[in-house]
Amino acid sequence: MTQESTPSTALSPEAIAQLVKGHREFLSFLERRVESRAVAEDILQSAFTRGLERGAGVDDEKVVAWFYRVLRNAVIDHYRQRSTAERLTEAWAREFPDVQEPEAELRQEICQCVSSLLDTLKPEYRDALRIVDLQEGKLKDLAQQSGITPENAAVRVHRARAALRRRIEQACGTCSLHGCLDCSCEAAGGKECGG
To answer: Membrane-spanning regions, if any (predicted)?
Structure first.
């Protein structure tokens, strides 16, 4: 009886060890190319995740060079996304020149169900999002408070954001796809989204 082997989509343990060993150099590489260490850490965490998921077939001896290409592409994507966001903001300002909402009011307008959905996450995910996103803390703050490494903190925040995104999509349906500024969703109250 023969057993069919499925192709691996992951890097070998040796390749992963090389990437982990190069963490400091990768972070330094990114910090020189983006606006802050926090952005560099986020890009690096995402790149590690993508690399681990899609690195099959990369030769162990060439994994570092391959990963630098992944990082270069991630930096390009970062600036492309930022440029798009800036263009959208400029277009909004041209279309509605008299509208100037203070940041505090804008934050309050964002879909009210997010805060109630945050409480449905695992405690460590909820705390991670509160520290890093809501309190605008840093990954090292989360790491210190949770007793984990900054790398593990970055993974935790990434997973927490993904979990919250799934909860929002489940609770708000199309509102979550179109943005929450016009959301009539009251997921916490049991009503369906009208968005």
So the answer is: none
